Amino acid sequence: MNQQITTPHGVIDIRPAQETDYQTYRELRLEALRNHPEAFGADYAANAEQPMTFWTERLRSLGSNNMIYFAVHNEALVGMGGIYRGNSQKTQHSATIVSVYVQPEWRGLKIAEGLVFRCIEWGRTQRAAIVKLTVSATNTTAIRVYSRCGFAVYGIEPQTICLDGIMYDGLLMSRHIV
Ligand SMILES: CC(C)(COP(=O)(O)OP(=O)(O)OC[C@H]1O[C@@H](n2cnc3c(N)ncnc32)[C@H](O)[C@@H]1OP(=O)(O)O)[C@@H](O)C(=O)NCCC(=O)NCCS
Hints:
Blueprint: E1 3-7, E2 10-16, H1 22-35, H2 44-48, H3 52-60, E3 66-73, E4 76-85, E5 94-102, H4 111-125, E6 130-136, H5 140-148, E7 152-163, E8 166-176
Parallel strand pairs: 5-6
Antiparallel strand pairs: 1-2, 2-3, 3-4, 4-5, 6-8, 7-8
Helix pairs in contact: 1-3
The protein binds coenzyme A.
Coenzyme A is lined by residues 32, 36, 39, 100-102, 107-113, 135, 139, 141-142, 144-145.
């Protein structure tokens, strides 16, 4: 089911990814990795080299263990957020939000909040009890978004990302969803 956010720049649909999104998904993800290398563990160059099957497979594998949501305006992808849950009997209660990104011209409109809440909703339908995420400790904008969405800090992972010799600690955040 799609959800809508009405913004001063137009209506945004929050909808699950579809297999046919592979090209625009690739573009949006590479844009995020290229412009915000300190915010994501994945590497731009390594992802840019991937064949198109890498992206189609990612979308094809979505289902009861992982999901991606897109923020869409007039059929253009303007934001995204992903979630996956543990794959064993003992870890499937725990889901993790990843890859949250909103294009610069669409920021400040609470689109990330919409994506995060949609991911949490997915976690509930998959009977997850807790949702976790890691955010760079210097990423104050994202930390504020996650705090507004009910996440609280439970720890710090030292040196999660090393970029050009600079170490970024990861702030570990969680929210109980039952
Ligand atoms: C972090 C991010 C996803 C937030 O998305 P968003 O949809 O803009 O989130 P919000 O609308 O809730 O706004 C976040 C903050 O930016 C402020 N803001 C307002 N206008 C803005 C603008 N034009 N550009 C940037 N930020 C703006 C908002 O007021 C808000 O601050 P507040 O919490 O003090 O109110 C987005 O900035 C982004 O994609 N950043 C780069 C990638 C990244 O860091 N991802 C997170 C990885 S963990």
